[in-house]
Amino acid sequence: MPADAGRKLVLLRHAKSAWPDVPDDERPLARRGQRDAPAMGRWLRDAALVPDQVLCSPARRARETWQLAQAGLGTSPPVRFDDRAYQASAAQLLDLIRGASPAARTLLVVGHDPALPDLALTLAAAALSAHAEPASSVMAVRMRTLFPTAAVAVLGITGNWDQLTPRSARLTHFMRPRDLSASARPESDTK
User: Fold this and answer.
1) φ, ψ for residue 86 (rounded to 5)?
2) With 91 labelled, which of 39, 83, 109, 186 sits at a CA distance of 20 to 30 A?
3) What is the SS3 assignment for 160?
């Protein structure tokens, strides 16, 4: 296997946030978000998708999502809270990812709608083509239909991060909190 094969890009939309009367970047997680984030962290651990590097928006709801997901992962990879990830476009997120350390084999990005879902669809656009693998196509359609809070898209990457371009990734997983079995979650919540 070439040294650059087998990279994984994990895109985690922040968990459900509350709407108190505070600036947007200071919105905390809602109770559902506090349940979903560690469950998604456990899913990442169980799926062998533990990141070696994390890029996270500095918005409070994203930071809290990462902290709770990290608890579910049971490990502490290096994390960079980058102001450019907050209110970024999909193209701006792609630029941030291209700057990731070449040593990172699995990169987790914790971000926001619409940039994160747009980026996932842009990178995995081939999954929506007529020639796509059926399983990948089904995941891509689900992802395009709704990329809810705390959802995770996992993209397989060949090459270095700085070589990442639209349509160059393969969608390998799309997991939503409601897709997890009731036994994998601390409290069942299908909404």
Assistant:
1) -85, 125
2) 39
3) coil
> DSSP labels for 92-117?
HHHHHHHTS-TT-SEEEEEE-TTHHH
Question: What gap in Å lies between CA 172 and CA 138, rounded to an integer?
Answer: 11
What is the distance of C-alpha 107 from the center of its chain? 9
| CA proximity to 167, closest of 134, 136, 135 | 136
Q: Which CATH number fits domain 7-184: 2.60.40.3210, 3.40.50.1240, 3.40.50.10540, 3.40.50.450?
A: 3.40.50.1240
Pairing of strands 170-175, 152-157: antiparallel
pLDDT tens-digit series, residues 148-189:
999 999 999 999 999 999 988 989 999 999 999 644 444 433
Model pLDDT for residues 13-50, shown as the tens digit of each residue: 999 999 999 999 999 999 999 999 999 999 999 999 99
Cα dist. 142→59, 133, 147, 148 in Å?
27, 14, 8, 10
- What are the tokens at 114? 């619409």
pTM value surpassing 0.85: yes
What span, in angstroms and rounded, lies between the C-alpha atoms of 99 and 61? Answer: 24
CA dihedral 102→157→151→178, nearest 10 degrees, is -130
